[in-house]
Amino acid sequence: MKNKQIKKETAVVHKGYDSSVHHDSLSVPLYQTSTFAFSNAEQGEKRFAGEEGGNIYSRLGNPTVRVLEERMAELENGQSALAFGSGMAAVSAVLIHVTKTGDHVLCSRGIYGCTFGLLEMMDEKYNISHSFSAMSTEQEIEAAIRPETVCLYVETPINPTMEIVDLELVCKVARKHGLKVIVDNTFSSPYLQNPIDFGADYVLHSATKYINGHGDVIAGLLVGNDAEDMMNLRMTVQKDVGGIISPFDAWLIIRGLKTLHVRMDRHSENAAKLVSFLKSSPIVNKIYYPFDPDHPQYEIAKKQMKAGSGLISFTIHGGKEVAQYLMNALELIKIAVSLGDAETLIQHPATMTHSVIPEMEREKMGITHSLLRLSVGLEHSDDIMGDLQQAFAKVETHFAQSVQK
Ligand SMILES: *Cc1c(COP(=O)(O)O)cnc(C)c1O
């Protein structure tokens, strides 16, 4: 069966691997090697000259890593993919690749904190500027585009308020102005959203999250829709900046990726059940979830995502004291940043992931002390809800008592 005819669920299990040339090993072997021995001096010469394919040195490519890259390119409907040692290594590689001194990057209203930090550094050191736009209409995007703009950098859903950016609209406007579109697709995973289908040039992931899905690796992946451009990126930025993945981490992700579709279905199902539960809780005020019909951009979410994914943010009645009391009252749910793991995680953005943003600005973004973010795991939904329910009850009792005192 030719690879092109198989479905993605099958491709993540089989693509890019032929067991008959690997001692019939069912599992993709781990090539834990830094370098490769040439048969003779002439072969080495040919490989360096690009006249013969094959391995040279693991920073330029590794057979285990290559299987992961092929599967990711397939999952994101791209031409080729590159694996990195962290999500931030993928972000920095693509931004270095598309910009030069004097250029401008237009970002969606919210971006990952360290991506913001990187852009600030690029501005200070290399005079590569950036600005933000809600990108909600063509006019709004065009008003934010400058003569020196080279790319649009988008996250959707936006962390932690789950604001949605319309990928079709953004890509249409970018094409009209000859700009590249880079999408950080970490929150949706390639199973739920494929930005290249809407015209994006690059899609990147923190593979640390849903792609690996087991909370034991830090890694990144970048997929592109132009194979030649990606080869260029591999042989310049990736090779010379060097933020590559280790073969062992690639091997773990190959294992995690096999169950991506099964996991994403369950994360999304569990999250949908939790949204209904949270809505019925008197402690909860607002809920932010892309597939909640009350989400202001529900229709756009439906257009570009297959399901709502596993992230829910919600506000509670009360401030920091109540939020922290609630987190401490949980027994099953872990207090941790990161997301996309089998374990349900909760975090408090105002004092954790978004604590470096000045309070005024943070509050404007809707990241108040009342806001909590849940990464819904793969446990039985009854147990996740049960844990929240008992913690809500403790909050009600505790704060009712403190009011009486
Ligand atoms: C975690 C994360 C990153 C950074 O990835 P690392 O693997 O931690 O380097 C980038 N973007 C988003 C949306 C993330 O959640």
Automatic annotation (TrEMBL):
One GO CC term on file: cytoplasm
CDD domains according to UniProt: CGS_like
Annotated EC: 4.4.1.11, 4.4.1.2
GO molecular function ontology, one term from the record: pyridoxal phosphate binding
Record bears the keyword Cytoplasm: no
InterPro entries, per the entry: Cys/Met-Metab_PyrdxlP-dep_enz (IPR000277), Cys_met_metab_PP (IPR054542), L-Met_gamma_lys (IPR006237), PyrdxlP-dep_Trfase (IPR015424), PyrdxlP-dep_Trfase_major (IPR015421), PyrdxlP-dep_Trfase_small (IPR015422)
GO BP terms in the entry: methionine biosynthetic process; transsulfuration
UniProt entry keywords in alphabetical sequence: Lyase, Pyridoxal phosphate
Residues recorded with modification N6-(pyridoxal phosphate)lysine: K209
Superkingdom per UniProt: Bacteria
Reaction(s) catalysed by this chain's protein: L-methionine + H2O = methanethiol + 2-oxobutanoate + NH4(+); L-homocysteine + H2O = 2-oxobutanoate + hydrogen sulfide + NH4(+) + H(+)
Keyword Lyase recorded: yes
Named cofactor requirement(s): pyridoxal 5'-phosphate
Family: Belongs to the trans-sulfuration enzymes family. L-methionine gamma-lyase subfamily.
Protein name as annotated: L-methionine gamma-lyase
Organism: Paenisporosarcina quisquiliarum
